[in-house]
Design brief:
The complex is a heterodimer of chains A (about 220) and B (about 210).
Chain A (H helix, E strand, L loop, with lengths): L25 H15 L5 H9 L3 H6 L2 H15 L5 H13 L12 H12 L4 E2 L12 E4 L18 E7 L3 E2 L16 E7 H4 L9 E7 L3 E3 L1
Antiparallel strand pairs in A: 1-4, 2-3, 2-7, 3-5, 5-6
Chain B lengths: L1 H12 L3 H17 L7 H11 L3 H13 L1 H9 L1 H7 L11 E5 L4 E6 L8 H4 L4 H4 L1 H7 L3 H7 L9 E6 L5 E5 L11 H5 L16
Parallel strand pairs in B: 1-4, 2-3
Helix pairs in contact in B: 4-5, 5-6
The chains are: A alpha+beta (about 220), B mainly alpha (about 210).
């Protein structure tokens, strides 16, 4: 079991850190721009980053700030795919530690810039216009399966074995990813908006009539 | 002993902001040398999220929805189509947008317990609170406690609808229009709408 898959519902954590900024250190914005360049030029996609986040030591996952985790994940990925070598990364890091004000090399491919900006507007829609026959229909009662633990999932742990009602059957099919190991979402399939009563998720909370919605890939559901 | 000391020193150094900054500079510099990034890419990306794709888009959509019920209807039915009417483009992390509306008695809250799914075309990039594991852990089970951390208290009888994004849809909340704003221009109304309010972790106030 991975804590990262089961965050929802953990108790006794204390107050939320209501930090409204997107970046709290200047390097985070620079790192984010390198990340979007990787996205926009097809070096990687969200699932690659999420696989790395979910493979972290869970205590470190809680300990490190968001972009610190990204930095570690990005370096690990780029080295493992031979985009850069560990040796050159270490040497360059040392150089900038010793020369914090040194400028970036006056080199690069400026065609990349427009490609990345255009990517922000085109996106990467997971919608697939393929013929599907959804197993469930609006109003059906469904149980979320207890899927076997895997490297990467899009099933929030607190929903496992819980019962909800199909609110929406989305048109067509959606492909999560086809290049990372998952629990069955590497093929295009129907996705359902499922409605749960939060009291059915946690029977010890006060009954306020609250509900929770989650978009579930078909493979995660069975008839209840 | 001296090995231990070196190790500790090394470990400590690798967890400093100075180190993260140098490591990030090293990454961009290697990308430049290998032609994987342009000389202007980083500046252009940062500028893009400051001026083109940010919460000012969402605030404009909310102000329009508050003042034009027909538009609000179209927005709730098909958000991607409706924002195009305002000359706004959708895109990454917003290919399938869904807008929900706060009304008296029903308050919507958006989260992503697995990572940080967020409607970029309308809100730009997620702030730190949204990505905080504590927020993600608590909001689904104790939303009122989390709202109180944000200084929000709902009426006793309000029900909460929580949207935990994990597949293709990115959720966006139209907050309730504050009282005393009749006749206000869309521009003046948009200034009342915070990023937090557009995910249900804040209220719009005049």
């Amino acid at each position: 079991m991975k804590v990262q898959h089961y965050l929802g519902g953990i108790e006794n954590l204390g107050p939320v850190d209501v930090e409204k900024r997107v970046f709290v250190e200047p390097w985070e914005a620079q790192l984010f721009a390198v990340h979007t360049t990787m996205m926009g030029t097809g070096i990687w996609a969200w699932p690659d980053l999420r696989v790395l986040a979910e493979s972290m030591n869970p205590l470190d996952y809680f300990k490190y700030r968001y972009y610190i985790k990204w930095l570690g994940g990005m370096c690990k990925f780029l080295i493992s795919r031979n985009y850069i070598s560990e040796k050159e990364l270490e040497a360059k890091t040392r150089y900038y530690l010793e020369n914090p004000d040194a400028a970036q090399p006056n080199a690069g491919n400026n065609d990349v810039t427009e490609r990345v900006i255009e990517y922000f507007y085109t996106g990467a829609n997971p919608y697939r216009d393929v013929a599907v026959n959804p197993i469930f229909k609006v109003g059906d009662t469904v149980r979320v399966k207890d899927m076997p633990p895997v490297v990467h999932t899009r099933l929030p742990g607190y929903l496992r074995n819980r019962i909800g009602v199909v609110e929406t059957v989305y048109k067509g099919a959606y492909l999560y990813a086809d290049n990372v190991p998952t629990d069955g979402i590497c093929t295009a399939q129907p996705v359902y908006l499922v409605k749960f009563k939060t009291r059915d998720l946690w029977d010890d909370i006060p009954d306020k009539g609250d509900v929770l919605y989650n978009d579930c890939f078909e493979v995660y559901l069975e008839a209840a | 002993m001296s090995d231990d000391h070196d190790h500790d020193h090394h470990h400590h150094l690798r967890e400093s902001e100075t180190y993260y900054a140098a490591r990030t500079k090293a990454l961009e510099s290697l990308f430049r040398e290998k032609g994987l990034i342009g000389t202007d890419t980083v500046d252009r990306v940062i500028n893009f999220f400051e001026h083109e794709m940010g919460p000012f888009n969402g605030a404009k959509v909310v102000a329009k929805a508050w003042t034009d019920p027909a538009f609000k209807g179209r927005l709730l039915a098909d958000a991607n189509k409706a924002i195009a009417e305002l000359g706004m483009r959708d895109g990454i992390e917003g290919e399938n947008l869904k807008v929900v509306e706060n009304v008296p008695g029903t308050h919507n809250v958006v989260c992503c317990t697995l990572c940080s799914c967020w409607p970029w075309p309308l809100l730009g990039l997620p702030p730190y609170w949204f990505k905080d594991p504590v927020f993600r852990a608590r909001v689904v089970r104790e939303p009122r406690g989390v709202l109180s951390d944000f200084g929000v208290t709902l009426p006793e009888e309000s029900k909460i609808e929580i949207w935990d994004s994990s597949a293709q849809v990115r959720y966006f909340v139209i907050p309730e229009r504050p009282a005393g704003t009749d006749g206000w221009t869309e521009e003046k109304l948009a200034a009342l709408v915070s990023t937090e309010a557009m995910q249900g972790l804040g209220l719009a106030t005049a």
